Structure formats: C-alpha cells, structure tokens
Amino acid sequence: MEANMHIGMIGTRFMGKAHSHAFRSAPSFFDIPFTPVLHTVCGRDNAQLQRLALRFGWKHQETSWEKVVENPAIDVVDICTPNHLHFPVAVAAATAGKHVLCEKPLARHEEEAWLMYETAANAGVVHMTVFNYRFVPAIALAKRLIDEGKIGQIRHFNAVYFQDWLTDPGFPMVWRHDASLSGSGAHGDMNAHIVDLARFLVGEFAEVNGVQRTFIKERPMADGSGRGRVTVDDATSFLALFRHGAIGSFTATRLAPGRKNFLRLEIFGSLGSLLFDLERINELQYHDGTEGTGFQLLLVTEPVHPYMEAWWPPGHVIGWEHTFVHVVTQLLGAIHSGLPATPDFFDGFRCQQVLDAVVSSAASGSWKPIPEITKIKPS
Amino acid sequence: MEANMHIGMIGTRFMGKAHSHAFRSAPSFFDIPFTPVLHTVCGRDNAQLQRLALRFGWKHQETSWEKVVENPAIDVVDICTPNHLHFPVAVAAATAGKHVLCEKPLARHEEEAWLMYETAANAGVVHMTVFNYRFVPAIALAKRLIDEGKIGQIRHFNAVYFQDWLTDPGFPMVWRHDASLSGSGAHGDMNAHIVDLARFLVGEFAEVNGVQRTFIKERPMADGSGRGRVTVDDATSFLALFRHGAIGSFTATRLAPGRKNFLRLEIFGSLGSLLFDLERINELQYHDGTEGTGFQLLLVTEPVHPYMEAWWPPGHVIGWEHTFVHVVTQLLGAIHSGLPATPDFFDGFRCQQVLDAVVSSAASGSWKPIPEITKIKPS
Amino acid sequence: MEANMHIGMIGTRFMGKAHSHAFRSAPSFFDIPFTPVLHTVCGRDNAQLQRLALRFGWKHQETSWEKVVENPAIDVVDICTPNHLHFPVAVAAATAGKHVLCEKPLARHEEEAWLMYETAANAGVVHMTVFNYRFVPAIALAKRLIDEGKIGQIRHFNAVYFQDWLTDPGFPMVWRHDASLSGSGAHGDMNAHIVDLARFLVGEFAEVNGVQRTFIKERPMADGSGRGRVTVDDATSFLALFRHGAIGSFTATRLAPGRKNFLRLEIFGSLGSLLFDLERINELQYHDGTEGTGFQLLLVTEPVHPYMEAWWPPGHVIGWEHTFVHVVTQLLGAIHSGLPATPDFFDGFRCQQVLDAVVSSAASGSWKPIPEITKIKPS
Amino acid sequence: MEANMHIGMIGTRFMGKAHSHAFRSAPSFFDIPFTPVLHTVCGRDNAQLQRLALRFGWKHQETSWEKVVENPAIDVVDICTPNHLHFPVAVAAATAGKHVLCEKPLARHEEEAWLMYETAANAGVVHMTVFNYRFVPAIALAKRLIDEGKIGQIRHFNAVYFQDWLTDPGFPMVWRHDASLSGSGAHGDMNAHIVDLARFLVGEFAEVNGVQRTFIKERPMADGSGRGRVTVDDATSFLALFRHGAIGSFTATRLAPGRKNFLRLEIFGSLGSLLFDLERINELQYHDGTEGTGFQLLLVTEPVHPYMEAWWPPGHVIGWEHTFVHVVTQLLGAIHSGLPATPDFFDGFRCQQVLDAVVSSAASGSWKPIPEITKIKPS
Q1: Distances (CA, A) of A228 to A166, A178, A219, A234
Q2: Is D164 within 8 Å of C289 (Cβ atoms)?
Q3: Where residue B97 falls among pLDDT bands split at 50, 70, 90?
Q4: What gap in Å lies between CA B89 and CA B66, rounded to an integer?
C-alpha cells in the first residue's frame, strides 16, 4: 500500500457498522493501493458513536456532519445516514472535493439524485452508490455468464425482495416509515436493490407500471406518545419493459412472514437461465439450455469465481458483510486509478428514475417511460 | 356402487389420456356412488383413437362429437378438445341434458364462457371445469389452512407458471399457437390455472393490469410448408388487486429454459405464509408467524391430509395424474348428490373474465376492473 | 395384446392394493404382450378381501392360498403376504408351474431364499422379486449413467432409509415386530431395498459389519391384551466392502422423527457423483466431475428418461405407485419372451445373504464375508 | 477493554489467515475483556510470512517457533502448523506459561494429545482446541435445543464430511498425505470435526468400528521429482456406539466429486430431529415430533440465536470464517475469567482417542472401546 486514505463516515447504525468493518477488513484480503484510515466517525447518538469508534478503532468522533465534510484531513466521505441526509451531505462533500461513497437509495427522488450526480461529476471526485449486491460473488458470476452470452438474449427478469419485520402491527414507527425522511418504504429500501441488479444484469428500463400498498396505516410511536401515520409503502409491485425487449416483474414487501432477507432473481434467456437467492448467498443456479439438462447448483466459492480467490478454499462460504469489503475495494481502486467507480451516482440516479416512475405509475394507473439520459462528460 | 354412469369423451391426446386413466382409477381408490363406464371415445385421428380405446378399454369409438352428444346412452360428456371446440360441444351437450366436464380454459373468451355456463345452469345438468390443481392435496391443504385462518388476512399472492417447451424457435406451429383455435397462448393455458388458484385461495379479483409478449413471432409449419405466424402470447405477466385487499403478481411463460412444469405459489398473510411448487407436488411449506419460527416443509402424504387417506402410507408420494382422479370423484359425487360441482362453469367463466381483462389491459396499458356478477339461481 | 394372463394374488393389504393397481394400469400405459386378468385375490380378512376385490375388479375371492396355487386357471401367483408365508407359497406355486412374483424381502433368511430360488429355477417358471425401487425412473437413469461410465469407478455408496412410524412407543405390536413372522424389522423391510439398489448400481458385496438396535423393547398389543416383546430391530446400520473396491455405509431405521419414507443414495465415483432422495422421486442429482461444475438437478420426466415416454409430458411428475406398474410390465414381458425377469429370486437370495451376514456380524462384532455363488444353469 | 493480550501465532497458511482475521475482528463485534494484539507471526516461508504480517498488521515476524514460545512479551501461543508440530509447540508454550490455542486434530495420536493436555493442565494455562464448528450458530442452536430436551433422547447421530479436492489423481503430494507429518488423512482432518461435534451434541463414545481406504496410492511430487506414496487414508467410515445408547455412522472422504466442504449432521431423538449442512451454514432444520409436523428450516440469524446478536439483522447471513471469531472470543473470555475454555485440550485428547480407536478397529476388523478417563483436577 502506497499511502493512507482517510475516511470520514456519517452514520453509526446498521450501515455504519457494516462499512466500518469493510474498511478495516479490505486490506487484509485484497490488494488495495491505499491504507484506509478510519479517521472520523460522525453521529448524533453519543453512546452509539462512542461504541462504534471504540469497536472499530475510529480515531476521531464528531457530531456535526458539516465538520466532517469541511475537514481537510479527510479524503473520503462515506454516507450511512437516513435517506434525507444523503443529498446535503453528498453535495457538500463533493463540493469540498471529497470522494463520496453513499448508501442506497441515493436520494429521496430523482431531482436530488441528479444534483448529487451532477455535483460530484463536475467536482471530479470519485462517487459511488452502495448497491452492494452487485458485489455478491454469485451475482458477479451471473453477470459474467450473461456477458459471455451463456444464457443468450434475456426475456424474463423476475425479482422479489421479501422481509417480514413490519408484519407485526406493534412494530413502532421509525424514520423508515416517514416519507419526509426516507422518501419511500419497501420501494426505496428494497426495490432499489433489485432495480439496480436489473440494470446491472439486463440493461436499461424502458417503461414501468406498478402498485403500492400500505397495509398497516398507523403504528405506535417508539417513545410511547400515541400512534403515528405511516407515510410510506409497505409493499410495491411493478411490471417493467426493458429497452432490449425483456419483460420484468418486481415485488418488494416487508410483510412476508417468515422471509427475513429473501431476494430472489429468476432470469430466463434464449439459451439458458439463472437463479439466485440472497439467503443462500454462496449459490447460483445455472441452466444451460443448449445441453438440455437440469439446473446446476454452483457453489460460488472457487478461486475462479469473482472475488473468491481472496477469501477461503472451495466450500468455505462467505456471508452478507463481505459484499461491503468488495465495495470499498472497488472504491479505493477507483480513487487510485482515476477511473470511475461502478456503480456510481449516475447509477444511483438511474435507479431513482425507475423508482420514481413506479411511484408515478402507481398514482396514475398507467405505464411510465424512463427517459433516456446521458452521462455528464468529464470536463 | 349403485349404478353405472356412462362417459363420452371428446379428445384423444394428452388430456384424453389423463381423463381416461382418472375414470378408470377413481373407483379403485375412492367411494364413488356410480361405476363410471368408459362408453365412447371420440376423435378425428383414427390411429390415436383406436390406441386410446384399446389402452383404456373404451367400448365404442366415434369420430363425430355431435353423435356423442346426441347418444342417449351417454350420461356425461367430457371435453378434452382444443379450446375452440369447448363452446359448441359443451352447449350441445348441456342442451341434450348431459352432465359436462370441460377442460380449461373453459372457452376462448368470456362471452363463450358465459353462454356455456348459462346453458348448463339452465339445463340443470352438473357442469365442472377441470381446474385440476385445486385437487393437488398440498393445495387443498393450503386452502384448509387459509380457511382455518392460519395465515390471517392475505396480502400477497404471487404466482408463476414456467415451462420451456417453446424456447426452441424450431418447435413447430401447433394449434396452441393459433389464436382462432386456442384463444391465447401461455395466458389461457397456464395463467388460467393460477388465476383459478387465486380465486380458490384468495377470492375474487378486482382489477388487473398486464403485459403480453410473443418473443418468437414465426415458427415452422409442422408439415414442412414454410413458416406460420404465431398469433398468441409466449408470455403474459400481470398485477392484480383482489377485492379483499391483497395484491397479486402473475407470470406465465413457455420460454423459461430449464423449467418443465413449474407452478409456484407464494402467499403471505397477516399471520403466516404458504409456499407451493408443482414440481414438488407432494410438498407444502407453511410458516406460522405466530410462532416466529421457520418454514415447515410439510410432506402432504398423511391420512389427515386432503385426499391422501385414499392412497398410500405416509411418505409414499403421488403424482400429477392423481389430481384428475380427484376431479372425476368430485364430478360423480356431485351428480349423485344433486349438489353443484366445484369448480363449475361459473368458475370457468370468472377465470375467463380475469384472463380477458388482462388481455384488454395489455392492449390499452391501463387497469381493467373485473365486473361483479352473480350466479344464476337454480330454477 | 395377444392373450390373457391370469393373476392370483395372495395378500390384501398395502402391497395387495399396490399390485392390484399395477396390474390394472400397466396395459393402459405400456405395450404388454398379455392382458393381465385379475382372476383371484386371496386373504383371510374377509372385509378387506371383499373390499379389494370390489375396488379393483378381482373376479374371484379365496381364503386359502393353497387353492390359488393349485388352481389351473391361474398363470401367475403374486405374493403380497407377511414375510413368513413367502417361502411356502412361492415354493408351492413354482412347483405347480406358476410364474411367481414375490414381495421383498424374499424370505426370512437365506436358506429359505435359496430354496425358493432353486425351486423356481428348476421349475422353469419366471420368478421375480419386487425390488420396486429399481423401477423408479430416476434410479433407472442413475443405472444408465453408471453403465455409461459417467461417474467412473464407484468408491462410495452411502444409503439410508428413514421412517418414523415406530417412534411413538404407543404404536402397537404388528406382525412386523415379531421375528417369527417378519424375519427382521427395519433391516429386512428397509435395508433390503437399499442392499438391492447397491447390488443393482455398484455390484456384489464382499464383506459387511453392522450393528442392530431395538430401542423400544415392548409395545402394547393391538388387541389391548397387555404388552408384547419386540423381537426385531428398530434400526440397523452397517458398513460394507464391495468386490470392486467401493466402500459403503447403510442405515435403516423406523425411529427417525419427521422422515416418512426417506431413502437417500449418495454415490461417488472417480469421475462424478449421483444423489437420490425417494421423497423427491422424480429428481436425480448428477455431478459431472470432468466439467468441474455443480450438481445438476435432473427432473426425470423427459421422454428420453427410462419409463417416462409412457407417462406424461416433461415436468408432469409421477408417484411411488408407478414403480409397480413398471414391475409388472417387466414380469409380463419376461413371461412372453422366455427370458428371465430382473430382479429375480436369485437377486432376492443374494440380498438375503447380505442381510443375514449383517445380522451375523452384529451378533459377533466382526466382519462377515458374502460367499460367492453362481446362478443355477437353466436345464 | 481493560488490557492487551499479546498473540504469537505459528503458521502462515490457511489457518494462519483465518486466525489472524479472527483476532483482528473479534473486538469489533464482541465484548472482549482484552485487546488482542497481533504481536508476532512465525513461519518458514518468508514471502508468505511477510504477506500475512502486512495484510493483518502483525507487528513482528519470526522464523523460529522456539523464539515465539520463549518470548516473554507473548501471552498466547496460537498453533496453526502442520499436525506434527502441534505437540512440541504446545508443550513448550504451556511449559513457558503461555495460554495455548491449537488447531485440530490436537495431535497425531492420543499419547501426544494426552501429554499436551497434561502439560497445559499442570501449567495452569488456558488451553483450547480449535473445533471451530461448535461455534457455528446453527450448531450452537442445535446444542441448545438438545440441552432443552427438545428432541428427547438421541438414538441416531449420522455425520458425513465430504470434500473432493483429492479426486484428481494428478493433485500432488502435500504434507497432508504424509502420515509422519499429518498423522492421518481425511480421518484426522475431517472426522476430527464430526467426532468432536458428536461429543458436543450427543456425549461420549463407547465403541467404534471402522474401515479406511486409500483409493489413490501414489501422487506426483509437488516439485516434479517423480511420485510419492500416500501414507494416509483418502476416506474413513465407521460405526459408533455412544455411552447413552445412541448409534452413530460417520464418513469422511476427500474423494466425493462435487462436494466442496459438505459436513452434514442428522440427529434423531425420541421427540424430534435436527439436520445441519455446513455449505448452508446459516440454516438448521428442526422437526418437533410432538407436533407431528414437517421439518422447519430455521434461518439462524435472529438476535435470539447464539452469537447472532453481535452480527447483523435477521436474514443477513454470516460465513465460515465467523466461527473463528467466536473461538477467539471464547478463548480471551476464558483467560479473563480464569475458567477453562471449551473445547479444551481434554476435548482434543478425547477426540483423538476416538480417532485412534477407529484406526485400530480398521486394522483389526473388530470393535474398539473408548476407555473412560477423567480430567486432571486443577491443583
């Protein structure tokens, strides 16, 4: 490693923990051109802030994100906040010349997302959206097989993302139920992932048509102060047409009892098929239609599989958190090479366009096109 | 068994074989109030006709369906023809006072279906549509669990039906590719099943919105005379709203490489979930959300499970064809009791309404309501 | 079909039902050189006898097996009795010149089995042991793949057969718990199947070494008259060496809670592997080691798969009972061709040698060889 | 964390990497009473040594294990060497007053293992054998369910451990093929794990009886210098009797094509059953026999599950390496509390007794008892 790269991370909860671990672990397994230094962690919950700093060795603690963004010692700003802060933090960080890593969904709506992208692109910084499921080895292998033409032209892309943590009507209001903070519910949180995977594996969307539901309209306030109104969707389903002719079906819900983090892809092409299930993250099922035989269960733990040479011998499975190690490896490599990171804020914006079009279609009951748009040329 | 019930069957192919076996086998396993007599089989392919007659012991052969319908010796007309003949045969048979069993989809469109229903209802005969998957023990068990309230109020009903036999562009034109004979493609053949299962398990549809695709637009003629234009869908996906508030997602395709006869249901309720996969026909997965534990894989082969006491000891699995044995048992029981059979032509008509609304929605790009309608009162 | 073949069946319970169905159904699906006529069914439970006769159309009923064996109108004697009657019935039937089909295990011990084989061989009749799992299409496909060399030289053959119906200590004594009637417990009932499959798929056994346990030593009498002592094994496990160098592991138990009829094979060769699970009877898993890829799940329902062309289109699964249809098709074909049936009484005897050697090894705590022996030359 | 605990690790390969990661990561996720300091890493392959030191931040490098053991700055010696070095390093380290963590199998034979245990026990240091699969959350949950009596009295414990990396006869000789370095092959490497899990979950062994095979007797030397003779087993199968009455079946092989790291447990008790498969490390199947229903697939990622509160939300799966984090957490906790670690060297010794008895039984063809023995009382 040639030099240090100082990280400032905003957010101390679930994603703060996952990102902290990733920055700490990446150099142990991958050749990284920089040493990531866990410089400053920022949050407003003091106990949580101290805990995270102590646990992962963050050198400094901060309660104002503005100070992190302005700190000249920091090279990379990593945004793990609730969704409504993605926009101001990312714009400020990029403007201040920091490289920016931002959790998904990139923003609450496409206008925010475009401004984030535009600002970062014009600032010439490296920007990346944490669509971490692109970095699951089995999904990266699916991408490789598709790019090699193994399943031919894709005709069907069916994706679902099922969780059950909101099935209990007694589960309290959190920021994720408030549209002003989160933008949307299952849609932005979960469909964002499968929309991105669709763009990654199939290509651009042409049109979408969806339906949204809030099955449980009120929830108890976490502080016991009565009940609050849920202003986001519990579930969103939509159909999609892709530019290259495939049709798609998508459903995200947080009211699927028994499903914890179940993301399934079913991809059917003219020559073969691919199946994936996130709860069995190390497996990919592949049907080679030219052989006319059954689905193969590929245990994606071989050295020839994406990312896996860095980890353990065949059959020694990895977990969910490893995807973030791959994300930060990609980010730091992009900073070093001067090439764009992938997926970047443009991908975050494009995903947001699809999500917004689904919302619009659900409101109007009609198909909504996804406008064509081109990337900003680097100046 | 008290008396004979003489069957006249029109159609000698796949369904003719399945129905023949069912009529022959039912009395060996179930208490049936009549002895079904395989009286006359009717078809236009003479070799096939003779073969079927010989194989299953049909006493008479006939090439004109009109003669079967008019034959006073025949009590039940069983329609296993291509779809365009369902209407004339069923109407003639009911008018002639025969009980009528008809394959799905009941008709090519809802107008035909209504006339079939109306005729049969007014004639006072027993009528039944062969939605045989209601008679899978695992699905009948799902119905029982739903009726007992085990999964609470249903919020999601996701169903797919995947086959791959049309993936090969060299597969020739058959009647199923000609809209004038079949009415539709994957939609009427396969979505008919999952639409009926949705009505069986969830209840009536309120609105639908879909998309249809013919990926392979021409196919070689079977007789070598050039190429023909495919006038039906290869694949149809649609979203649905149910009257009682659930949302649904449906996809049928014949271009899913590696999937042979894969019908999957995923049903999420307020208290639990149910999963079913037709290729593992003896299994039902059930999650009891009130226990907060995992999905149970129920091997539906216990005497307490629907239909299974008639068959074999626990763990001795049954197959696809057994569903037809259950169908004819139900039919003959209804004839004896004087009570309606279920599912009857009204169910066939209601299913057709949903299918037609999907076609209409796909053409217009908008949601289509399913009109309310009531059954004809028995006179 | 050229002529009739008159069947006399002894036994009216589980196997009587399965065999009755098989004889009735076989001509509907397979080209059979004879019409099997369900001539006489024989049993001592009068209600059950009448019921079976009525259900399957047996023309005559009989309570003395001797009369069946002596009846000149009968061509084939089918033995579905408790195990202790296999020997006297089979010997008498063969001596009377009848072809004989006998359930497994062929006998209570190898001496009986040898005499049965010797008698039938010398009588020149067709004899067959109902090792019906050889006739599962997935297992027949496994045999084909092995014979084609697809998995190379076999090194490991691991087989288990798990049921749970005796887990409940309140389950009463039945003939299967009495060694004088059944010969043994799980061993003869269940290991018989997997020993035969090992001979079918791998080849002859060289040595075995096992352990037997009766976990529940007493059970209530079915008639309420106190408790009886269980004189057979609840479970038997053994290791095996095969002549050609493979090693094997076998376990049969009736005390495996949750397992209903779970027979699993795991076969590892020098070039690939095969896996089978009877509760998913239509599936075979195949790993082609030369490709270095995953296990393929083959849905064994294609016309190219053994027996399947006779049944339904791909993906339309069959059940457990179909194996008996294949058995009787084989039997009637052998009678017509004059060639031996497979598996015959020699196979039943060889299986019994292995079973007896396991019992002996369990008693002595040492390995027991399986003697070489040759078939009787047809005179 | 109160103080530092300085680690000296011997061995730089697969296990060295896994342990390094574990010491680095444990304090990020668990409350650990010490800060583990990666003080010295020791190995003879200089490139590998430097690489590991750089990757994981080991402060010092050493090529002589004796110097590590003698270094007064080091508190814990972690042994990740080939098996023949376990004994001298562990004895020297314990004698020098170091706490000792040692990979499995603890030794090449039980005499070594006993001396290691005796030395460590008498030295009063904390000693622990890395049977890391006890620390799989699903297996820890199985242990909890068993201890709670959920499956009653255990009757069957069937375990297999399948890998395929030696199927290729061209795979070269490594230290694992040389009995003088490794002690044994699949037996010590893989059966060690499942023997330990049997002791953990069922209890002590009473007798064993096994068979061992070396299917590929020669392999090319890694340096191209001809071929070497394999002096260890490729595969070992054995039967076991447990003190409390259960029977067991065990197979380990490295010649199971398509199986990468497949460790399966099947445990049947008087009241229920448990199933586990290491390639699906986050899943446990549980059958509650008192409910008479199916197997539940428990996704072992809930906060109430062992170890999982420390990691991620439900459904966010962990991998193989996490087990080592749990191991070192246990070790450091034991050092702090002054209580013994579990599993300790006594467990390593007991496992070795079973392994040695299997080898002896395979040589003699007879059952071998496992002697009773008691732990050394702390002085």
Answers
A1: 14, 9, 5, 15
A2: yes
A3: very high
A4: 8
CATH number belonging to domain B3-133? 3.40.50.720
Please write the tens of the pLDDT for every residue from A301-335: 999 999 999 999 999 999 999 999 999 999 999 99
Please tell me the distance from the alpha carbon of residue B343 to that of residue B345, in angstroms, as a whole number. Answer: 7
B366 close contact with A: CB closer than 8 A? yes
- Calculate ∠ Cα C136-C141-C145, nearest 5°: 150
pLDDT average, residue stretch C244-268: 97
> Does the ipTM surpass 0.90?
yes
* Number of C-beta neighbours around residue C57 at 10 A: 15
Domain D3-132 top-level CATH class: alpha beta
How much helix, strand and coil, in percent to the nearest 5, is found in chain B? 35, 25, 35
- Mean pLDDT (chain A, rounded): 96
Cα separation, D350 vs A251, in Å, equals 53
Residue span(s) of chain D under CATH 3.40.50.720 come to: 3-132
Enter the tokens of residue D12: 């730089």
**Which chain D residue has its CA at the smallest distance from A165's CA?**
D314
pLDDT by residue (tens digit) across D28-51? 999 999 999 999 999 999 999 999
Gap between the Cα atoms of C126 and C128, Å rounded = 7
Portions of chain C given CATH number 3.30.360.10: 137-280+282-318
Question: First and final CA of chain B: distance in angstroms?
Answer: 29
User: Which positions of chain D have pLDDT values less than 70?
Assistant: 1-2, 378-379
Q: Which residues 273-302 of A have a C-beta within 8 angstroms of C? A: 286, 293-299
Helices C86-95 and C110-123, packing angle to 10 deg = 10
CA A85 to chain centre: 16
| 332-361 of A, contacting D, C-beta below 8 A | none
Taking domain C137-280+282-318, whether its CATH number is 3.90.660.20 is answered by no
Instruction: Tell me the chain A residues in contact with residue B270 when contact means C-beta distances shorter than 8 Å.
Output: 167, 215, 255, 257
Dist CA B53 CA C28 (whole Å): 10
In chain C, DSSP finds a helix count (H) and a strand count (E) of: 11, 17
In chain A, CATH 3.40.50.720 sits at 3-133
Task: Please state, in angstroms and rounded to a whole number, the distance separating the CA atoms of residues C304 and B163.
Answer: 18
pLDDT over 70, % of chain B: 99
Residue whose structure tokens are 């001809």: D226
Give the pLDDT confidence of B12-31 residue by residue, as tens digits.
999 999 999 999 999 999 99
**pLDDT tens digits along A269-280:** 999 999 999 999
Chain D contact for A124 (CB, 8 A cutoff): no
State whether residue A102 is helix, strand or coil. Answer: strand
CB C339 within 8 A of CB C175: no
**What does DSSP say about strands A295-299 and C295-299: parallel, antiparallel, or unpaired?**
antiparallel
Q: B43 — phi, psi (to 5°)? A: -170, 170
Q: Kindly list the partner chains of chain A, i.e. chains with 3 or more CB atom pairs below 8 Å.
A: B, C, D
pLDDT digits (tens, 9 = 90+) for B348-367: 999 999 999 999 999 999 99
| C221 within 8 A of C178, measured Cβ to Cβ | no
User: What is the pLDDT at residue B1?
Assistant: 43
Shortest Cα–Cα distance, A220 to chain B (Å):
18
C2 pLDDT band, cuts 50/70/90, is low
pLDDT at A1 over 70: no
E strand or H helix that includes residue C86: helix C86-95
> Which of B154, B211, B360 should we substitute to test contact with A (largest number of A Cβ atoms within 10 Å)?
B211
Q: Which residues contact B103 (CB under 8 A, 6 or more apart)?
A: B11, B15, B79, B80, B81, B86, B129, B130
CB distance from D303 to chain A under 8 Å? Answer: no
CA A222, A228, A233: angle at the middle one, nearest 5? 105
